[in-house]
Amino acid sequence: MFEPLKNGLILFFLIHFVQSSRVNYERGSKFVKINSNLVTRSACRTLWFNRCEYNFECCSKFCFKESNWQYGVCKPNSEANQISCKPLWYNQCIHDSECCTENCEKKPNWRFGICGPNRVMIGRKGECREVGYQFCQENSECCSRKCVRDKEWLYGYCAAPESTSTQELGAEVSDDGILSRIESKECGVSQVLPIHLRIIGGRNTTPDEYPWQEVMI
To answer: What is the pTM of this model?
Structure first.
């Protein structure tokens, strides 16, 4: 008598459980689907977003960035084809052919390289570079012997040498031996003390004589 009732209750609970699970699953799938859409939308930037750094950040796959800009602008991908080569210091190159200088300098641990100078810009080896030269790497390359280059830079620039006259003078004066020799050599001072201060014809005068200029008058 109770067996059919028991089976019916079990069947009822099973059906209710399956239906509730299906609703929860559908709700969960919708929730996940919405989240995935949101993630997809936030993964790329729309046109004219002006803080991109790499092409993959933009939905158009083209982040236009000048060499002196910190951030670029997401532009239509059609404009990317209009730019045949990348300018100097463009920092997303992979191959030499991408750079106008045909020189994509890339270290082993870099994901992207930098469009560096070509041989014409660097010039011939063995010649010192004047002040203002922008592609030095060692002090010996500059005529001024001063290449200002940060450790993170590929290249530096030749700067004017600092004035060394004050430093050299200070070094000489700090030497006691040199200082004593400088003090003993006073220009225009005779070591022979004259008897009288007035001179006539190159000889010492007596107190009753006048200078020879007045004698001629």
So the answer is: 0.36
